[in-house]
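Thread: "does anyone have the structure for this chain?"

Original post by V.I.:
We have the sequence but no experimental structure in hand. Need at least a predicted one for the grant figures.
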Amino acid sequence: MFYKKREGMNFLWFLKSTRIPLPERVLVIHPFGIGDAIFVTPLLRALKESGVKRIDLLLGSRTREIFEHNPHINQIFEWDKSPVKDFDEQKEKWRKLADLFRAIWSTRYQVVFDFSPTAQYAFISLLFFWIPVRIGFNFKRRGFFLTHKQELPKGYANKPVMEYYCSLLQFLGIEPVSKKTELFLNEQDRTKAGEILRDCDISDSTLYLVVAPGGGESWGKDARLKRWPVEYFGKLIQALHQNYPHAFDKVLILGGQNEYFLGTQLVQRSNDIQIHNLCGASSIRIAAALIERASLFIGNDGGLVHVAHAVGTPVVAIYGPVDPVVYGPYPGHSRAITVTNEGPACRPCYQKFRYQATCQGIECLNELLPERVFEEIRSRNLFHEASSIGKE
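Reply from O.Q.:
Generated one for you, tokens below.
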């Protein structure tokens, strides 16, 4: 293959070609959050099944667990950009970064898929990693250092993110057979989840819901814009328990450590329902194993929605400023429903990777009443009458 002559070859061939011979070594760069990272998994499978021998990932600091034990991946690199103040910590961080760059450079990747809508990673892939073929998205002319690009004038809009991601495979002439998201759990994950369930007095025959009242961690202090009111979650749980008394016995609340206070508020509204606040008590993989055994997952737009969909649990996802057509569970399924407020006119305000941070009323969520969400669950028959939810 022409790739073996990489150091002395004429790179103009790449710039003029729209079809690239299948490479042996591919680097995939995805620096963002859990939900978006899960959207990459069908592309990884497609690359592996097409014959790519080595597929490595360069990730941010939050998503490594999502890809652990994925059989389509050879190695995971993690670039932690969290700030440090201490001089010794700063020095150690720069040393690790140098080791990271050296390891990536020495692998001699032939193709990089850059899923960031910025110029930074393509530039680094050219200048430091010497990767000749750089595939990604051209958003606001930031794809200058890409050799093969998909135009993205309005960001992700009008179709699922997954469709955008998989469209980059066209440059290699690959059509993915499956677009199902994947998360590979192992026995250790399920064993640890079982221990947590036993601590909550939940046996193999106990039916339970998982509720995630947080979400939106990647939005930082603006995560409030993606969160349905906690009291609405409480009312919805009560309505479900009253109308489907045999469908679940307990409720588990999952989320990050910073969302523990939300779980506490929900427990205070539990009335006669046993609710266990597990926010911050488990890793993503163990949380996935807990969700895998649940009858139903209910949560805000966030990473755990996509984790639940990937492990096959029925999902009720509540969306406010973000368009579920674009960022909802994918591929669509009758037991993965999204609920949104038909108004206000400004919804969805998340456009071109920006949102209205100054919004105070959050009408898109605050005006979405629990009765509406309950009716969606009832009409979709997510609960079988007087029984648990089955999984296909």
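V.I.: this helps a lot. Confidence is low (pLDDT under 50) at residues 1-16, 385-392.
O.Q.: and The longest helix spans residues 87-107.
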